[in-house]
Amino acid sequence: MLKRSWLCNVVLKALLLSVTGAWTYTTNAVTIEPTKEDSMLAQIISRELEKRHLASGTILDRKPMIGQLILKAIDPARSLLTERDIENIPVKSLPDQIEHGNLETVYGLYDLSLTRSEERLDFWLSILSKGVSAIDLSDIEELQVRDQETPWIENLMALENLWRKQLENQAINLLLADRTEGEMVKALVRRYKNQKNRIEQTRPDDVFSAIINAYASAYDPHTSYLPPADSETFNINMSLSLQGIGAVLQSEDEFTKIVNLIPGGPAEMDGRLKPADRILSVAQGSKAFEDVVGWRLDEVVQLIRGPKGSKVRLEVQAGDDAPHREIVLIRDRVLLEEQSAKSHTIEVGENEKKIGVIVIPTFYSDFTAKQAGDTNYRSTTRDVKKLLENLKEQNVDGVIVDLRNNGGGSLQEAYELFGLFISRGPVVQIQSAGGRTDVRGDRDPSIFWEGPMAVLVNRLSASASEIFAGAVQDYGRGLVIGSQTFGKGTVQALLPVNQGQLKLTIAKFYRISGQSTQHQGVIPDIQFPSAFDPNIIGESALETALPWDQIRSLRYRPIDRLQARTSQLIDRHQARVATDPNFKALLKRTERALELRGEKGISLHLETRINERETNKKALLKIENIRRSDLGLPAIESMSEIESEGNDFDPTDDASLMESARILLDEIQINPRLAGL
Fold it and tell me: Is 648 assigned a catalytic role?
């Protein structure tokens, strides 16, 4: 075993002397001390960030928060360290220490968190060794949701009480997943022993990455250090380079969480796995599930990856109060064909007007084929041209560009695609760290679609999607409908450093009106309720996100002024959705989800939790059966009857899409220019 760092020894000795009888556990947690290479690399990274990052001029204002960001990275739920620990740590001086390569204090803090993690596991295993009777799930208690706004626990005795509550909550979660009491105990014992083994396997680059990424995140949440090993501490794309399920994952507390789904991947096409879902267990084919709570992110990814065509089973949960769900997926490689734009038509209104829908999962371009001189290379713009040609032949009355869940991609494709709908003009501004502004736009005077159009967006529409939607709005070329977009308006680049790479933000996107898409995203002309909680998903949910701002507007000529008609369109929309079965159900489900997420306490009384689960199931079932009754469909007895359907549903059941088509039809009727087309 390596020598325990001085801070860990000092803090533990002081606490053990001051809290008689509070601690009796022995630990074997590995201790890792900083090397000269770590010290040098920390200095290099801090200098490069100060020199090259877009926000380098304002970092002094954010410097006081770096110490808190480090504490958050080490103990995000504030369930390992105590108020007394924090008093013994020079938190405010940590950024200066890192910049000078002095890592002993922060490594000691990390050591202390490892020690406490193992002590907590020993505490839980000690209780479980006494059997089910040692876990009291009959008392009326709550476990408060803990975050960076939660006060630190006062001392070790109070910390132990929190740990007891955490154990009871995990026990209830397994019992609610239909485990017997005996199975629950065995599962938790296995989980905690695995987690102890993983603490012993902590690598030097784990410690350095956690600390330096916490430091770098003060600049913005998209800036991070990537170590040489083929694993990233945060987001890992599992589909474009290796066979997998097509998802981007992230570590959050002890859980592996879904960040987003790759368009065309197995998970996105299946439709049941959702952003913010937690992966609890993974099974290969028909083999037994392996609990992955507390695992390293790269280990979870390796478990999910596998040969193309093989089966992987995931046990997932939307949150503490949500039921466990088993999802079976067949691994595959995400192909360009599967991510490509597609179209279909829907009929709306009394006269069954035909509206064309173009679904764009991502902005793509086959750069390899293009550079090789292949004149038939695939790209978003080229594919949409063909789709528009087909829709013209079908005599559609209008076109909806569906950008929901489109996380971006090729910026060039975003502004070239917009060029299909205008004669020519600027589309986006890009301002770099030096203040230089680059303008990109459409130079082709031809227009490929002159008719009515709308853009449908949601909270997962990001980056290039926001550029396209923002341009449509600024030019008045069409309606933007849906919910507020993600707000990712920054550009990153990779910079090689001594060991690994530094991903840092170097520029910012601005609309031609001068407004940034950063943080705020695009606010639709007509807004729909969002199924995604903006406090959890979106740029504004990220603590150190760069702010919204504005630069000089470009000179451009708007095609139309929609503001004069928007209020009339909203009035028609609201009157219609008040009686639309699908939209009423969407509103009720959204209200229910936000209500549950707003709860700050989790009951530790088993019967209460069972009743809460049943109440929620009945509420969702009631909403669904009211919808089905209004549509003349037969009632169902359980939500599982439709949950198993995944993405296999009729587009007319898509409340947001159908209402967008009706709004576009309203616009055609109200706008004399469009009505004459």
Answer: no
